[in-house]
Amino acid sequence: MAATRTLLIVLAGGAGAGLETLTEARAVPALRFAGSHRLIDFPLSNARNSGLSEVWVLEQHHPGSLAEHLGGGRPWDLDRTRGGLRVRAPQPGGRRTGSADALWRVADAIEAALPEVVLVAAADAVYRMDYAEVVGHHLGSGAELTLVTTRHDGDRSRLGVVTARDGVVTDYAYRPTEPAGDLVTTGVLAFDPRALLAGLEQARHDRGTRGLGDVGEHLLPTMVRRGVVGEYRHAGSWQPIATVEGYWRAHMDLLAKPPFGLDDPAWPISTCDLRQAAVRVQPGAELESVVLAPGVVVQGTVRRSVLGPGVHVAPGAVVEDAVLLDDVRVGPAARVSRAVVDEGARVRGRAEVGGEAADDEVALVGADAVVHPRKRVPAGGRYPAGA
């Protein structure tokens, strides 16, 4: 079990510029994954499965996009009288310039809580991790900060790249244009609380009115230079969700070679219940390697795709290699291929979205957009929200 006074702080305020219109009206952690889940379910489920019972969620970008989903924290056993889930919305009139700034704004509350360890986790990746093991390793190492790292063979220009030797982090580069290696941070960090508060105070002093930025910009490099940062290597799967293509690819991997089961009874990834009708597959429909959320109605053909709650696919329509979010409608004889279609969008009869593309390009249709009959959104193209 984790230390009895471990405080988990989930950073849930990311704007996610690389996700384009998918985060125009929602925070990254509110983005659906695998049909029924949301990205914030992963750190919250990891917390529950690891025995952590005190969790703060720091919101910033579109805070309302998570409110209904989080509720009182019941799906993750965090609806408690003591401890449990505490959601911290942005202060009225306040401005957060990054994750370090968000932590600075709750520094007094951290000090008052008197935790033994402050565990910080981003909510923009798909993974499962025993936070208790991270905390135990951190306490045993004597480090002021422990970075959870992993090998990543994808795009590292949006990540923190690490050099480590014998369990000690010797160099750290934040979003480098030319990464020096494939060892990256997972966004999970275990802090000695006093070191965290002192580091935030120093960063505030150094940065002044410019804001503290993200933790990777100033706080982590400063601590690494002081030689007080250890490493904990995560050996399991870890998939960052930073771009539209990365989001699509994570779903295709889920269909082809799931890194782990979301409903594994030994480590379930819990989510808020969806109160919708059961899936309905009508006569004449064809399905191949699909994930269907509650409320889906399929009358056409769906192959290698993930359909979110309430999606309808009309007769004669073909959906292939696609991710369709809540309440999307695909009209008769329409075609959606190699695409992400945001919630509420309509692909009318005989319209076409996506197709074969080079370099992992994916077509994107924004929320509530209407792709009119016989219109074509090209492979890798963008169709704006509300169009």
TrEMBL record:
UniProt keyword terms in alphabetical order: ATP-binding, Carbohydrate metabolism, Glycogen biosynthesis, Glycogen metabolism, Nucleotide-binding, Nucleotidyltransferase, Transferase
Top-rank taxon: Bacteria
Keyword ATP-binding among UniProt keywords: yes
Molecular function GO terms recorded: ATP binding; glucose-1-phosphate adenylyltransferase activity
Any single GO BP term: glycogen biosynthetic process
Domain Glucose-1-phosphate adenylyltransferase/Bifunctional protein GlmU-like C-terminal hexapeptide: 284-361
Occurrences of domain Nucleotidyl transferase (ranges): 9-255
InterPro entries xrefs: ADP-Glc_PPase, ADP_Glu_pyroP_CS, GlmU/GlgC-like_hexapep, NTP_transferase_dom, Nucleotide-diphossugar_trans, Trimer_LpxA-like_sf
Family: Belongs to the bacterial/plant glucose-1-phosphate adenylyltransferase family.
Identification of the protein by name: Glucose-1-phosphate adenylyltransferase
